[in-house]
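Input/output pair, single chain:
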Amino acid sequence: MTVTAAEGYIIRLARLEEFPRLTEIELDAFATLADARGGDGDGEPHALPQDVLRQSLEDELLFVAADGRNQPIGFLAGMERDGTLYVNEVDVVRVWQRRGVGRRLMATAIATARASRLGGVTLTTDRFVPFNAPFYARLGFTEITTSDALPALRQALATEVGHGMGAERRVAMILRFG
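Output:
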Protein backbone atom coordinates (compact mmCIF):
# COMPACT_ATOMS: atom_id res chain seq x y z
CA MET A 1 0.00 0.00 0.00
CA THR A 2 1.41 3.34 -1.03
CA VAL A 3 -0.51 6.57 -1.23
CA THR A 4 1.31 9.45 -2.88
CA ALA A 5 0.75 12.84 -1.29
CA ALA A 6 1.31 16.26 -2.76
CA GLU A 7 2.46 17.37 0.68
CA GLY A 8 5.82 15.61 0.32
CA TYR A 9 5.12 12.34 2.09
CA ILE A 10 3.51 8.97 1.44
CA ILE A 11 1.54 6.58 3.62
CA ARG A 12 2.70 2.96 3.49
CA LEU A 13 3.05 -0.14 5.62
CA ALA A 14 5.88 -0.02 8.14
CA ARG A 15 8.94 -2.26 8.11
CA LEU A 16 10.48 -4.16 11.01
CA GLU A 17 13.79 -2.31 10.71
CA GLU A 18 11.92 0.98 11.26
CA PHE A 19 10.88 0.15 14.84
CA PRO A 20 13.69 2.25 16.42
CA ARG A 21 12.57 5.25 14.35
CA LEU A 22 8.94 4.72 15.38
CA THR A 23 9.99 4.83 19.02
CA GLU A 24 11.88 8.10 18.33
CA ILE A 25 8.77 9.56 16.69
CA GLU A 26 6.57 8.57 19.62
CA LEU A 27 8.94 10.06 22.19
CA ASP A 28 9.35 13.24 20.13
CA ALA A 29 5.58 13.65 19.73
CA PHE A 30 5.13 13.19 23.48
CA ALA A 31 6.67 16.63 24.02
CA THR A 32 3.75 18.26 22.17
CA LEU A 33 1.26 16.32 24.29
CA ALA A 34 3.07 17.20 27.53
CA ASP A 35 3.06 20.90 26.57
CA ALA A 36 -0.65 20.77 25.75
CA ARG A 37 -1.46 19.14 29.07
CA GLY A 38 0.47 21.82 30.92
CA GLY A 39 1.89 19.30 33.37
CA ASP A 40 -1.52 17.73 34.02
CA GLY A 41 -1.57 14.01 33.37
CA ASP A 42 0.98 11.36 32.54
CA GLY A 43 4.23 13.31 32.56
CA GLU A 44 6.76 10.63 31.69
CA PRO A 45 7.47 9.87 28.05
CA HIS A 46 6.94 6.25 27.07
CA ALA A 47 6.74 4.23 23.88
CA LEU A 48 4.70 1.27 22.74
CA PRO A 49 6.26 -2.07 23.60
CA GLN A 50 8.01 -3.74 20.68
CA ASP A 51 5.63 -6.71 20.83
CA VAL A 52 2.67 -4.37 20.21
CA LEU A 53 4.43 -2.88 17.18
CA ARG A 54 5.31 -6.37 15.97
CA GLN A 55 1.68 -7.54 16.25
CA SER A 56 0.45 -4.49 14.33
CA LEU A 57 3.09 -5.16 11.68
CA GLU A 58 2.09 -8.83 11.38
CA ASP A 59 -1.56 -7.82 11.04
CA GLU A 60 -0.64 -5.23 8.38
CA LEU A 61 -2.04 -2.49 10.60
CA LEU A 62 1.20 -0.56 11.19
CA PHE A 63 1.26 2.40 8.83
CA VAL A 64 3.94 5.05 8.43
CA ALA A 65 3.99 8.44 6.83
CA ALA A 66 7.35 8.63 5.06
CA ASP A 67 9.05 11.75 3.75
CA GLY A 68 10.67 12.23 0.34
CA ARG A 69 13.67 10.15 1.48
CA ASN A 70 11.24 7.37 2.53
CA GLN A 71 12.06 7.96 6.21
CA PRO A 72 9.16 7.66 8.69
CA ILE A 73 7.85 10.96 10.04
CA GLY A 74 4.71 9.55 11.64
CA PHE A 75 2.98 6.26 12.31
CA LEU A 76 -0.26 4.59 13.32
CA ALA A 77 -0.31 1.24 15.11
CA GLY A 78 -3.62 -0.59 14.98
CA MET A 79 -4.98 -3.97 15.91
CA GLU A 80 -8.25 -5.79 15.46
CA ARG A 81 -10.25 -5.86 18.69
CA ASP A 82 -13.90 -6.69 19.28
CA GLY A 83 -14.66 -6.53 15.56
CA THR A 84 -13.15 -3.06 15.14
CA LEU A 85 -9.80 -1.60 14.20
CA TYR A 86 -8.42 -0.30 17.49
CA VAL A 87 -5.95 2.57 17.10
CA ASN A 88 -3.32 1.84 19.69
CA GLU A 89 -1.13 4.83 18.85
CA VAL A 90 -0.82 7.58 16.28
CA ASP A 91 2.12 9.99 16.39
CA VAL A 92 3.80 12.52 14.12
CA VAL A 93 7.25 13.97 14.71
CA ARG A 94 6.99 17.60 15.82
CA VAL A 95 8.47 19.22 12.70
CA TRP A 96 5.76 17.54 10.59
CA GLN A 97 2.80 18.22 12.89
CA ARG A 98 -0.12 20.39 11.74
CA ARG A 99 0.38 19.40 8.08
CA GLY A 100 -2.37 16.79 7.85
CA VAL A 101 -0.11 13.78 8.45
CA GLY A 102 -2.12 12.47 11.40
CA ARG A 103 -5.36 12.98 9.49
CA ARG A 104 -3.98 11.00 6.52
CA LEU A 105 -2.81 8.19 8.82
CA MET A 106 -6.29 8.04 10.36
CA ALA A 107 -7.91 8.08 6.91
CA THR A 108 -5.74 5.10 5.96
CA ALA A 109 -6.77 3.20 9.10
CA ILE A 110 -10.45 3.99 8.51
CA ALA A 111 -10.24 2.87 4.87
CA THR A 112 -8.45 -0.32 5.93
CA ALA A 113 -11.12 -1.09 8.53
CA ARG A 114 -13.89 -0.53 5.97
CA ALA A 115 -12.15 -2.73 3.40
CA SER A 116 -11.77 -5.43 6.05
CA ARG A 117 -15.51 -5.15 6.78
CA LEU A 118 -14.94 -4.34 10.42
CA GLY A 119 -17.67 -2.63 12.42
CA GLY A 120 -15.71 0.59 12.89
CA VAL A 121 -12.61 2.17 14.37
CA THR A 122 -12.06 2.62 18.11
CA LEU A 123 -9.52 4.37 20.28
CA THR A 124 -8.87 5.89 23.67
CA THR A 125 -7.49 9.37 24.03
CA ASP A 126 -7.22 12.51 26.14
CA ARG A 127 -10.57 14.24 26.43
CA PHE A 128 -9.23 17.79 26.70
CA VAL A 129 -6.19 18.16 24.43
CA PRO A 130 -7.37 19.83 21.18
CA PHE A 131 -5.45 17.47 18.91
CA ASN A 132 -6.83 14.42 20.70
CA ALA A 133 -10.59 13.93 21.36
CA PRO A 134 -11.70 17.10 19.50
CA PHE A 135 -9.57 16.06 16.49
CA TYR A 136 -11.15 12.61 16.40
CA ALA A 137 -14.62 14.11 16.79
CA ARG A 138 -13.99 16.17 13.63
CA LEU A 139 -13.24 12.86 11.88
CA GLY A 140 -16.65 11.50 12.92
CA PHE A 141 -15.74 9.67 16.13
CA THR A 142 -18.14 9.88 19.05
CA GLU A 143 -17.41 9.51 22.74
CA ILE A 144 -18.81 6.43 24.44
CA THR A 145 -19.19 5.83 28.14
CA THR A 146 -17.05 3.21 29.83
CA SER A 147 -20.14 1.09 30.45
CA ASP A 148 -21.07 1.24 26.73
CA ALA A 149 -17.52 0.58 25.53
CA LEU A 150 -16.55 -2.74 24.00
CA PRO A 151 -14.59 -5.00 26.38
CA ALA A 152 -11.21 -4.19 24.80
CA LEU A 153 -11.83 -0.45 25.18
CA ARG A 154 -12.81 -0.85 28.83
CA GLN A 155 -9.59 -2.79 29.38
CA ALA A 156 -7.54 -0.15 27.55
CA LEU A 157 -9.00 2.63 29.71
CA ALA A 158 -8.36 0.63 32.89
CA THR A 159 -4.77 -0.04 31.85
CA GLU A 160 -4.15 3.64 31.06
CA VAL A 161 -5.56 4.75 34.41
CA GLY A 162 -3.49 2.02 36.08
CA HIS A 163 -0.39 3.56 34.48
CA GLY A 164 -1.16 6.91 36.07
CA MET A 165 -3.23 8.67 33.43
CA GLY A 166 -6.05 10.66 34.98
CA ALA A 167 -9.39 8.85 34.67
CA GLU A 168 -11.19 12.17 34.17
CA ARG A 169 -9.00 12.86 31.11
CA ARG A 170 -9.36 9.49 29.39
CA VAL A 171 -12.17 8.82 26.94
CA ALA A 172 -13.17 5.95 24.63
CA MET A 173 -14.29 6.89 21.12
CA ILE A 174 -15.75 5.03 18.17
CA LEU A 175 -16.40 5.64 14.49
CA ARG A 176 -19.15 3.20 13.56
CA PHE A 177 -19.68 2.01 10.01
CA GLY A 178 -23.17 1.54 8.60
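Helices lie at 19-37, 50-58, 101-115, 133-138, 151-162. The mean pLDDT is 87.
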